[in-house]
Structures are given as structure tokens and as C-alpha cells.
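Could you help me review a protein record that somebody else here produced? What it holds is a sequence and that sequence's fold in C-alpha cell form. I need someone to confirm that the C-alpha cell line plausibly describes how this chain folds. Take the sequence as given and treat only the C-alpha cells as open to question. This is what I was given:
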Amino acid sequence: MLKKLSISVVAALALLISAQVHAQKKTANNKNKTETPAVEESQPPLEPPLMAIADQIHTGKIVCEGGTIIQITEKTNAPGSFVLKLKNENFNVMPVALSTGAIRLEDARQGAVWIQLANKSMLLSSKLGRRLADECQSPAQSTVAQAMKLAPPVSILEPQKDVARK
């Protein structure tokens, strides 16, 4: 029994020492973070077709359904790349070429996809398989959405009046 007790005491002391070492490392890491800010390396600019897409990205504060706020900022050290912030998550997104006319930004590592249309945007998670934010609108997109309500686009699925036959 004395042997079991001494093993328990040694294990408890080892856990205590391990916790103290972990706490000291964490404190040292936090000091290093505050004293020396991380410097991001500059990246070469994107190819011209992707830069053309990047030039169309709405940046700044974007308000979404339910009061969700998304902040999009272009990276100063990586032209054409953006940081998309949702609550406490940051996504490093880059343009992806599409043939549909929609604008797509993607963070392949975290599985985030930002789709930007003329009248709204949405943030999707390919890892979770769901929308993280919907009905997001910059001021410019809000203007387009209002114009679409006043003069809805023609639907190709509905029969049209044949003006030539009249």
C-alpha cells in the first residue's frame, strides 16, 4: 500500500510540474507575441485574371442576415489576397476563377468560401457543409438589390410575350 501511495504522490507531482512548465511556456509565448509583432512575408501578386477578380471585391464592413458582421480587408503584403473576419475567426481568402460570373474567394486550408453576387454575398464552410453567413450586403450590393426589386430581371424560365407576332 505504501508503494501505491508513493506512486500516486510521484504522479501527482509530475502532473503539477508539467502544468507549471506549460503555464510558463504559455506566458513566455504571450510575452513574445506582444513584444515582437509577427511580420508576414510579402507574396508575389496574383496572375492578371485573378487580380481582375480581386479588384471587384467589396471590402470593409458587410452586414449580413441576423445582424452578423463580416469585415473584409485586403492584405498589404499580398496584393489580391484578403482577410475575411467573422466574429473571432479570420479566413485568408484568395480569388478563384469561375465561368459563372460570380466572384469566389476561398480559404482552402480552413474550407471557407465567400461567394459575391451583384446583390448579395454569402460565406460557406465546405468542411461543415453549411452557410456561415447569408444575405450579406455591402452598400453597393444593397443599392443593386433595391434596383432589382423595382425592376426585376427577366426570368428565362417564364414564358415571354412574343412582341414580333403582334
